[in-house]
């Protein structure tokens, strides 16, 4: 792979006045003498307006400002890893790939160093959140440019929880309280809706904080010593078995990140860990989504953090970042595009279109006027500040990235609720982790 440095990217006829920092400051760059095409692979956004904005307005502005034709391809997020692997093996594919979680660490040897872009962004926009840095920096360089973080909270039906005693917007504070509330709601045909399937967002964003809240963890701080098989982990699995049966829609074992949206919007579940996409959809179509009494569903939705456990209260919010692939024949153009799309004036349009579903990867976006529009969305404003990075508990970053990929923690709980003895489920998961960390 040809080494790409700041120096050779910016030299010659493609040099930009002021370098990458100049692009970030003014949000534009001189057009190429001859148009280039940059292929950007992304997930199909849960906020459709954002994909429309990128394909239409942003793509046109890109060609006008940079002379770059932008080819945006969107696919199901669960299919991205297969596409990246195939592209690396064949040596051809999208120039830029927007990946989730810590997936970028799996491909660190197959991507271009984008430290110049990332460092300039961090300096100009208040600094990156810890999660963004963990997924996109390998400790020596930036292997990706952080794009956003999707905050996750429990969306729940305010009126239904009020019926079982949680009035005035209150919500269960501990897992035991949540289980008891869920039992009452399930008895009314209103179970908790949660996925324990192989899906990119809601499953690991539930399973990891749940494990941590009981005092469990995958590995010690050295990134090598497996620490999963502990009394705390076993207790978390035992509780989950009863919690799942008593309070959940048990079909959640086969759900992806869209099933819970559909269940909540159709009134078949009472609460679900999710991004803000459910609430945003009810705002977008107030006449479509109604409560059983005929009122707007949007007025019966509140959000809450995951409950506390014996080991504390945790959360995990899904980070996105852009990889510039080493096989790309358009690395100069792709770098210029990345600097431009992340600049404040351009990124602001995408950020506004998200309606709070995503927060920026840097702290400046907490100050945006968007957050003043709807108090129900305020829990998402600082979501990126909280939590602990899933699978990133030591220096073995690239190996740790494989844990989310393999869904080991999710599967540990799924196997137990399907009948595997809790102790055996933990031993199985520990053996799987040894294949990753050792």
UniProtKB/TrEMBL annotation:
Compartments (UniProt record): Periplasm
Pfam families hit by this protein: SBP_bac_1
SUPFAM superfamilies: Periplasmic binding protein-like II (SSF53850)
Classification via Gene3D superfamilies: Periplasmic binding protein-like II (3.40.190.10)
Keywords, ordered alphabetically: Periplasm, Signal, Sugar transport, Transport
InterPro entries found in the cross-reference section: Bact_solute-bd_prot1, SBP, TAT_signal
Homology family: Belongs to the bacterial solute-binding protein 1 family.
Protein name, UniProt field: Multiple sugar transport system substrate-binding protein
Organism this protein belongs to: Bradyrhizobium japonicum
